[in-house]
């Protein structure tokens, strides 16, 4: 029974999406970049900037690993 309900919901949603037109002026890219260091791979940041342009958002993250650590995050900071 639930399968037919979900099929109906998905079918109706896809039908609504096919009717609406995409408004390009509302599209704003949001890029999450893991560059591995701004000095090492600066070309990735420049590439991301060119993709987002004036209206998007570019978030650059540098993950710094501690080679001597046994776990990446302490237990109290891990999500359960």
Give an account of the 3D structure.
It is flat and about 55 Å long. The protein has a domain at 28-64. The protein has helices spanning 2-19, 42-52, and strands spanning 30-34, 57-61. The chain has two helices and two strands. The protein is 36% helix and 12% strand. By secondary structure, it is an alpha+beta fold.
Protein traits:
2 strands, 80 residues, alpha+beta
SS content category: alpha+beta
Poorly predicted ranges: none
Side-by-side strand order of the widest sheet = 1-2
Helices and strands, in order, run as HEHE
Count of DSSP H/I helices: 2
Alpha-carbon Rg, integer: 21 Å
Strand tally is 2
**Gross geometry:** flat
Q: Roughly how much helix do the residues carry, as a percent range? A: 25-40%
Mean pLDDT: 80
The biggest sheet, with number of strands, parallel, antiparallel or mixed sense and barrel status, is: 2 strands, parallel
How is the secondary structure organized here?
Elements: H1 2-19, E1 30-34, H2 42-52, E2 57-61
Parallel strand pairs: 1-2
Write a brief caption for the model.
It is built from two helices and two strands.
């Amino acid at each position: 029974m639930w399968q037919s309900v979900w099929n109906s919901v998905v079918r109706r949603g896809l039908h609504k999406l096919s009717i609406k037109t995409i408004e390009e002026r509302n599209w704003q890219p949001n890029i999450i970049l893991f560059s591995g260091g701004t000095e090492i791979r600066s070309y990735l940041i420049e590439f991301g900037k060119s993709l987002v342009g004036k209206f998007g958002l570019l978030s650059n993250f540098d993950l710094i690993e501690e080679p001597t650590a046994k776990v990446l995050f302490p237990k109290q900071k891990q999500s359960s």
